[in-house]
Design a protein that fits this description.
The model has no long low-confidence stretch (mean pLDDT about 85). With about 90 residues, the chain is α/β, with parallel strands linked by helices.
Length: about 90
């Protein structure tokens, strides 16, 4: 089990990060890394089953994580999905 890293140079406590394509692979590794530095992570992917499993894995590591299932190529879906999690897209 991974533990939260303590680093004064890289503290994401109080921040929320949306990571697209994060149900597996590089996106999942990014979600784990951001979470290990204190970020609340919102995982995104198209396969709801894989996405939920990824969220549970991150939560088991002691992080705050949630799922947001939408297709990033659909602008209306992105708007609706990010609103539901109160994420500001810049």
């Amino acid at each position: 089990m991974k533990t939260r890293m303590a680093s004064p140079l890289f503290d994401l406590s109080g921040r929320r990060a949306l990571i697209t394509g994060s149900s597996e692979g590089i996106g999942f590794a990014m979600a784990e890394g951001l979470a290990s530095h204190g970020a609340e992570v919102v995982l995104n992917g198209r396969d709801l089953g894989k996405l939920q499993a990824a969220v549970e894995t991150v939560r088991a590591q002691g992080a705050v994580a949630s799922a947001c299932n939408f297709d990033v190529t659909d602008s209306d879906a992105v708007t609706a999905g990010t609103r539901s999690k109160r994420i500001s897209v810049r």
